[in-house]
Design brief:
This protein has 213 residues and is α+β, with helices and mostly antiparallel strands. The protein is 63% helix and 11% strand.
């Protein structure tokens, strides 16, 4: 059964002054955000077809999805994949998700290149790790491989990997001081390997450790 008909009343919602209740043929039909009412020039007496109503409701869902993403972005930047996953978890249709993500990319509110650099830089400052582990973390965030490669090259130009590895074991060096040299070396090398540092970097850092002991 169709929902089309003539708008007979547009009423401000008491609990949400920025929303409007739309009445068709003297019966409540649906609610819309004020901006959608204004944008579509809805008025009493306007005859709405079923297709017109479907477009209005699609605009309403898209607006809600966009506002949900704005709230997510107010906490921290997100990758496109993260946003898609969160919208999917909220039950939004694939078409709405695509429209929202593409619109936010056009306005640069979503940018995987920027996200990879900012998120990676923050991770390295708080929790030093090697390029291999950081690449894996970015991949899990849904960042395309080409963007990961560029981000890794840039970040490790900024932050020397040997210095990061040295920082990563700073607290552990004192802990292993009492161990036999080969045992301390093994534990530190295993730790750095788990942190994603290459063997070349591990060897260089632990050569310094060996000299100190």
């Amino acid at each position: 059964m169709g929902r089309g008909g003539v708008i007979t009343k547009i009423e401000v919602q008491k609990r949400s002054p920025d929303r409007r209740s739309i009445f068709i043929d003297n019966a409540f039909a649906f609610g819309l955000a004020e901006e959608i009412v204004v944008k579509n020039k809805l008025r009493v007496g306007l005859d709405l077809t079923d297709d017109h109503i479907e477009r209005l409701l699609l605009n309403e869902e898209e607006k809600k999805a966009r506002e949900y993403v704005f709230n997510l972005l107010s906490y921290r930047d997100r990758s496109c994949r993260e946003v898609r996953d969160r919208l999917q978890d909220k039950g939004y249709d694939a078409d709405i998700i695509d429209r929202v993500v593409q619109a936010l990319k056009r306005s640069h509110l979503l940018d995987d290149e920027r996200f990879a650099l900012e998120w990676g830089r923050n991770r390295l400052m708080k929790n030093p790790m090697g390029a291999r582990l950081l690449s894996q973390e970015l991949w899990k965030k849904g960042i395309p491989q080409g963007i990961i490669d560029r981000a890794i090259e840039h970040l490790y130009d900024e932050m020397d990997e040997v210095r990061l590895a040295t920082s990563a074991i700073e607290n552990r060096r004192a802990r292993y001081k009492e161990l036999e040299s080969h045992k301390a070396y093994k534990r530190l090398s295993d730790f750095l390997a788990r942190r994603g540092f290459s063997w070349d970097v591990v060897r260089e850092v632990l050569q310094e450790f060996e000299h100190e002991n």
